[in-house]
Amino acid sequence: MAYQVLYRTYRPAKFSEVVGQEYIVKTLVNAIRNNKIAHAYLFAGPRGTGKTTIAKLFAKAINCQNFDGESCDECNNCKAYLEGNHPDIIELDAASNNGVDDVREIIEQVPYAPLIGKYKVYIIDEVHMLTQQAFNALLKTLEEPPAHVIFILATTDPQKIIPTVLSRCQRYNFSKITLYEIQKRMIEVLDRENIPYDEKAVSEVARMAEGGMRDALSILEQCLAYNPEKLSLEDVEHIFGLTSTEEEVDLYLKIHQNKVSEVIEKLRNMYAQGMDTKRLAVDMLEIVKDTLIYSDKAKEKLLNRITAAEAQEIINNISMDTLLKDADNLEKLISREKMNQSFLVYMELCLIKMAETSNTIRPITKEKEHKETKAESTVESVDDKEETVQSYIVEPETEFLLSILLDANKDLKIADQIIYNKLDLYRYEPEKRKFYQLLIGTELFASNKDAIIICGNKSQSDNINTKATNEELYKFINNEFGIDKMVYGIDNDKKRELIEQYKRTPAEMRNRPVYVEKYHFEETREKKPEDKLKDLFGDVVKVED
Ligand SMILES: [Zn+2]
After folding, report:
1. How far away, in angstroms, is 88 Cα from ligand 1 center?
2. Strand-pair partners of 490
3. End of a domain among 370, 388, 406?
């Protein structure tokens, strides 16, 4: 079965069929009803958002003899339009006819009255492509247009249009069509074509269209040309070389796990296989955006691209600061999309930059492994960077931590627990939210009078020990809770090790008096060592497992 061009087949024939742009359609319909038609319109907006479609519907409606919110499709004007030969509706694609001669040809006809309609309507598509000379020629006509002439200029690039032209046009800004509207329209088309579909495939195609209805339908058509029986997710991914969201999340995490070269290698493979690298950049930005939104409100329904579990995994491993900087870097990268030739290069640079950002803020997992391999292998420049950055982590020595532990006591721990009790308060405070991010999911392991030890996973503890963060955290705890103590981060391995060492320490060294209310003194003196451990560190047994 040969497919017709879906976009043409399903191009709206009525205002009521237009997807999106309700505001613009309403304004134009009202203008016709109230006989308040301007002589020049500028339709500006991204491709595939309905500029030309609405321009044509408008041209037809203006000339319809029985207009009543919609054109009648029965009068001479409507018929001529539907047959594609209305003599007074003239279209010019400035992308291919952009010279002064093309414009002059039009302008020479302007003074003559319309042949069958009320108005001569000139639709100039991609008007920003006109040469300067052509623009100037057009301008003269726009300055003093005859009453029977209407210009509709459409453009994806309004900033390229000279101000003197702009100022003579009534301007309408077309917005991207929402994902929901595109999906809805695609499903209508699929239903009318009697083609079964995977919902995920529909949303994948809609996403690729990036707010353009025309793109959505032509992508859909490509898929149906490949498999006319069904629109399946598998086929869509196959045809467009898309990566799954899981893979993308994994790639994103890897950037911040010292594996940026692995990511770049993967990227190059994808590129070699013809995959759209810009797509991947946009997807990554969406992943970051989703995570940022989720970290703030933790509402699953706000997520566009990733699952709550995926968002949580990213939050656990990547700091707020890093996410924000990534969003920045990715946005800049995507704005370079027009330089298609070198996009891959920019993308690689961007990934390296992102990896670098994470290093200065949040250090690296598997540090030891990394150092070992380093000694043997020749290092790339990227790895060099990471090596320098690691010096920012002030990893406390086990002996030092043990000395804090030997001096720690339960009551100080309870008192310092206020940090955790109040942590939720900072969740929505823009300035201090990063401390919420930093501490959430960690636990207060021990307190003495000069220091607190916080336990989390490896990346959390590294984060706490990173010099700049550590300093900020110290100030935060001091200012907010009046706790003037150094903060040290440990991970669970370290915690186990410390508890073991604590147990091995001679009893007299660790047998410091546990503070208890005096009337319970007798009782506590008889406490077993295990109970004391429990007092200090909570459920030790569980930790050892
Ligand atoms: Zn009509």
Report:
1. 14
2. 455
3. 388
Higher pLDDT pick, 242 / 441: 441
Q: CA 328 to CA 212: how far, in whole Å?
A: 24
Q: Residue 72 is which amino acid?
A: C
Please identify, among 361, 388, 415, the residue that sits at the C-terminal boundary of a domain.
388
How many angstroms is it from 53 CA to the middle of ligand 1?
A: 17
pLDDT in tens, 72-92: 999 999 999 999 899 999 999
- Total count of domains within the chain: 4
Q: What is the CB neighbour count within 10 angstroms for residue 66? A: 12
pLDDT over 50 (residue 2): no
402 shares a domain with 415? yes
Helix axes 492-504, 529-537, angle to 10 degrees: 150
Q: One-letter amino acid identity for 147?
A: A
Indicate whether 38 belongs to any domain.
yes
Q: Please give the pLDDT value at position 191.
A: 95
Say how far apart CA 492 and CA 500 lie, in whole Å. 12
Note whether 28 and 58 are within 8 A (CB): yes
Q: Does 60 share its domain with 168?
A: yes
| CA 34 – ligand 1 centroid, Å | 17
Within this chain, do residues 105 and 189 fall inside the same structural domain, yes or no? no
| pLDDT higher than 80, residue 527 | no
Confidence class for position 534, pLDDT limits 50, 70, 90? low
Helix (H) or strand (E) holding 187: helix 179-192
CA of residue 364 to ligand 1 center, whole Å:
69
CA of 69 to the centre of ligand 1 (A): 11
Which residue range(s) make up the domain with 382?
A: 245-388
Give distance in angstroms: CA of 367 to centre of ligand 1: 75
CATH of the domain at 252: 1.20.272
Tokens of 163: 């101000």
Q: What's the chain's average pLDDT?
A: 81
Q: Which residues contact 181 (CB under 8 A, 6 or more apart)?
A: 19, 20
pLDDT in tens, 299-331: 776 777 788 888 999 999 998 888 888 988 888
